[in-house]
Amino acid sequence: MKQQDCLRRFLFEELGVRGEWVRLEQSWRQARQHQVLVNHAVESQLGQALAAVVLLSATIKFKGAMIMQIQGGGELKALVAQATHEGKIRGLVRSEDQVSGNDLLAMLGEGGRLVLTVESENAEPYQGIVGIAERSLAAVLKTYFTQSEQLDTRLWLFADTEYAAGLFLQELPTDNQDKADWQRIEMLADTITEAEILTLDCEQLLHRLFHEDKVRLYDPQPIEFKCNCSRQKIGGTLAALGRSELESVLQERETIEVDCQFCGAQYYFDRIDVENLLSNPVMNEDESPTRH
Questions:
Q1: Could you report the per-residue pLDDT of 102-127, keeping only the tens digit for each?
Q2: Same domain as 273, residue 239
Q3: What residue numbers bound the domain in which 272 lies?
């Protein structure tokens, strides 16, 4: 049975290099079914972003979520991918009805940027930002790590209609790092093909790429699509708009309807709900029906 919807960490035992592998199937299918993907190129960018955020979130120890936001002024307006420390993922894409570019830079246009945010339960949020001047997300992230980590880091990201997958390699911070080792491993990884990473299990892929090295492979971590939206969170957002804004909407219609952009869940708030929100912003999530 193929390894799907899981992350595998691995370590080159005799070299100062660590790595990760991820392949998403059902979680990728569920994440994209709520998004308007105008063509395969846009679909691939969302899949690559989801694979990337899983790989990156696994490099740090935290309780919370890592959010990758990609923004631009071109036909592709925004990509958002999120992964929690428990392996729950979700994503969204916003674009024009037609997107003509085939690579990330062409889709985003000039002035695109990538924002990585770590929201931790027990620490202040951390945010890193890098301008997008490369054609692929993997290349953008290489630049990001060069600027922020000073550790050699590479990602290989692929996605089609069935799978989203990625490979991550990073040198370990040691005093006697041999750059020749890193360069050799990087060169071997550069031979990877889209067909290989989308179809081979982790052990098969690592053997094909690095069969001359001793690689320790760790147990898989499951990944699943799960949206953390809730009536309480949506209600809090509405309450922040203020009474006059909400009452002006209710003058035009009997209820305020809010759709979650990540999972398509629909939340309804009538006049009584809104009054409860304004007088007591922390509502019980079950006070009114939610339709999925």
A1: 899 999 998 999 999 999 988 888 89
A2: yes
A3: 231-291
